[in-house]
């Protein structure tokens, strides 16, 4: 927002909003205290306590305190605020509408700029002094092409399951929007997002009663995608499956990079280098610094095997909560049936995409966990009232 509205950054709106919301929640602590008994909260609290207790034993505690704690807090507030504030079904629905709407806007804005003015925002090296353009977030946004692809794949399950069951015009709007999103995904040239899309497509196919129609639609979509891709884009996606492509070396390099990240993490296997210090650890060990391309390796580097255990325990608590409520939702309203189906798909998409994307100090796992808690408590409360 400060990049869009001149002078807004002076008042630090994010910090101000965080303080106001936190203060209001503290005033209602007796009303919301029961929510902290939820298994996801307990698992995440154990992880946070582990971070605090092990801080003196990490490699770079000073960097953690000076630079990285604030970034981590900005991410984890999505868990607390979503779980604690969304205490009515109306608020939950409104938050989903705002979240999905904002993410769709983040995609359509750079796509519009690309079509109207040739905007790309990023590029990738192909070798031999050759570069290929890649679509990233809008000029006022902060996301790179891989992150834009991640945003696209995240919103597709929400749009599909909440819009497709509706009337004809809504279906047409959804299909038109889906076409734009998939075209934007092609322009990002994000192989990780493409793999995540396959996960989402598999769940949609598995749940569908019209599998033949989906297969036909899929074939048409693939043919259309191949037709609109240029040579570099086509080569980029084919490099996932073929070693004969020009960009296969970068795909192989990504795998090698992931392996090296795990090796780096195992050089300090117990407590790691410290929260948010992946780049610093790489620079001090290898002499160069690049962002992590694997969340699990990132967690191992920053928190060691101890931290990896506690974070995976947190992720498993989210999985168990979603599975439990997915079964219970069969006797609940249509809204909760759809929501828990979508959240379950998003969970597995996140789990796969995290192989190719960092995430310990990113919002997405925490937002999902907060939504799972809020939706679970609301659905169970509604069921009890109806009983």
Automatic annotation (TrEMBL):
Coiled coil: none annotated. Residues 177-312 form the O-antigen ligase-related domain. The chain crosses the membrane at residues 6-27, 39-57, 69-86, 148-168, 180-205, 212-229, 299-318, 338-358, 364-382. It is a multi-pass membrane protein. This is O-antigen ligase-related domain-containing protein. InterPro entries: O-antigen_ligase-rel_domated, WaaL-like. It is found in: Membrane. Signal peptide: none annotated. Pfam families: Wzy_C. Keywords: Membrane, Transmembrane, Transmembrane helix. It comes from the Bacteria. The keyword Repeat does not apply. GO terms for cellular component: membrane. The keyword Translocase does not apply. Its main location: membrane.
């Amino acid at each position: 927002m400060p990049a869009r509205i001149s002078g807004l950054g002076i008042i630090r709106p994010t910090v101000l909003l965080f303080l106001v919301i936190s203060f209001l929640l503290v005033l209602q602590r007796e009303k919301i205290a029961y929510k902290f008994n939820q298994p996801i909260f307990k698992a995440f609290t154990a992880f946070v306590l582990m971070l605090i207790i092990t801080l003196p034993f990490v490699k770079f505690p000073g960097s953690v305190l000076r630079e990285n704690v604030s970034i981590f807090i900005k991410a984890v507030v999505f868990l607390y605020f979503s779980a604690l504030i969304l205490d009515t079904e109306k608020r939950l629905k409104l938050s989903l509408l705002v979240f999905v709407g904002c993410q769709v806007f983040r995609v359509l804005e750079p796509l519009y700029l690309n079509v109207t003015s040739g905007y790309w925002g990023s590029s990738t090296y192909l070798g031999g002094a050759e570069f290929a353009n890649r679509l990233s977030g809008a000029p006022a946004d902060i996301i790179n092409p891989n992150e834009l692809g991640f945003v696209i794949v995240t919103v597709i399950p929400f749009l599909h399951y909440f819009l497709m069951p509706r009337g004809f015009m809504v279906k047409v709007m959804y299909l038109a929007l889906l076409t734009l999103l998939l075209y934007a995904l092609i322009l990002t040239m994000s192989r990780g997002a493409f793999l995540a899309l396959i996960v989402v497509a598999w769940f949609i196919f598995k749940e569908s009663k019209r599998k033949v129609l989906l297969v036909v639609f899929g074939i048409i979509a693939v043919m259309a995608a191949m037709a609109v891709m240029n040579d570099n884009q086509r080569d980029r996606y084919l490099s996932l499956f073929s070693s004969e492509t020009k960009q296969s070396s970068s795909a192989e390099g990504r795998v090698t990079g992931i392996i090296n990240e795990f090796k780096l993490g195992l050089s300090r296997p117990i407590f790691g280098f410290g929260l948010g210090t992946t780049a610093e650890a790489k620079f001090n060990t290898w002499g160069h610094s690049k962002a992590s391309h694997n969340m699990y390796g990132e967690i191992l580097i920053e928190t060691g095997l101890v931290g990896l255990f506690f974070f995976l325990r947190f992720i498993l608590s989210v999985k168990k909560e979603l599975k439990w409520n997915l079964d219970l939702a069969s006797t609940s309203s249509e809204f909760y049936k759809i929501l828990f189906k979508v959240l379950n798909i998003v969970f597995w998409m996140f789990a796969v995409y995290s192989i190719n994307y960092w995430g310990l100090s990113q919002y997405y796992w925490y937002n999902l966990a907060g939504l799972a808690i809020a939706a679970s408590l609301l659905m169970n409360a509604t069921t009890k009232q109806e009983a």
